[in-house]
Design a protein that fits this description.
This protein has 231 residues and is of the alpha/beta class. It has eight helices and nine strands.
């Protein structure tokens, strides 16, 4: 039986400032090892914009007197597409299809890997990953970012915040709110959270730069991270 997983690969681990070539190389090897263990395994990557997106958005806000949300989003989207082309190139023949920019148009793909990037203003690549999971029939999204676990509150603001192994979608919606702000730093984008909740999707969020932990998530072993799931 075909096994497809969707990985939301945070731009913060691919390009925290500039491209982290050590991480990308290790990520490539781990992914190829995973795929080569079982011919039925296939993966979809949805990559974020990372440091370059935030840097260019910041520059825009500093230059323009009345910056608008859509322009900031488009700047971030272009950074995701650059990172997407990087991953597509890195995986070569394993990823023969073009980088996806409209997740609602994908029903199937060639090869063992498909790479997607940002689509349009109003949400982050987290939401693109949820839409892709919905379209291709995946029931789980693995959200790899620069945080190990979801906290009960923002630990920068609340000293009593604690890391969680599991959180319901209802609790997650209270935590992240309903409003999307370009460049906002939340465990999972509010728009994506709402849609994933409606779909009763399972999302696993974990530190993406921990390659060994990522391998455990992929094969279903015990891992360090947070499971966001149906109530």
């Amino acid at each position: 039986m075909e096994n497809i997983k969707v990985l939301s690969v945070g731009g913060s681990i691919v390009a925290p400032d500039k491209v982290d070539t050590v991480f990308v190389g290790n990520f490539k090897q781990a992914i190829l090892d995973y795929l080569n263990e079982d011919p039925n395994r296939r993966l979809v990557f949805v990559v974020g914009g990372g440091g370059p997106a935030r840097s260019y958005q910041k520059a825009y806000r500093e230059i323009v007197e009345n910056p608008d949300m859509d322009s900031q989003d488009w700047i971030g989207i272009m950074a995701t597409r650059l990172n997407g082309e990087l991953l597509k190139g890195v995986f070569g023949d394993e990823c023969p299809d073009p980088v996806v920019t409209n997740p609602t148009a994908v029903k199937s793909f060639k090869g063992r890997i498909l790479v997607a990037a940002g689509w349009k203003p109003g949400f982050s690549t987290d939401n693109d990953s949820v839409l892709l999971a919905e379209n291709i029939g995946a029931d789980t999204v693995i959200n790899l970012s620069n945080i190990k676990k979801v906290y009960s509150a923002d630990p920068k603001l609340d000293p009593n915040a604690v890391p969680l192994d599991r959180i319901s979608w209802a609790e997650m919606r209270k935590l992240v709110g309903d409003k999307w702000v370009p460049g906002v730093n939340v465990p999972f984008d509010p728009v994506a959270t709402k849609r994933a909740s409606e779909l009763k999707l399972k999302v696993i969020t974990a530190a993406g730069n921990n390659i060994e932990n990522m391998k455990k998530i992929l094969v279903g072993s015990d891992f360090v991270g947070t499971t966001i799931g149906p109530e």
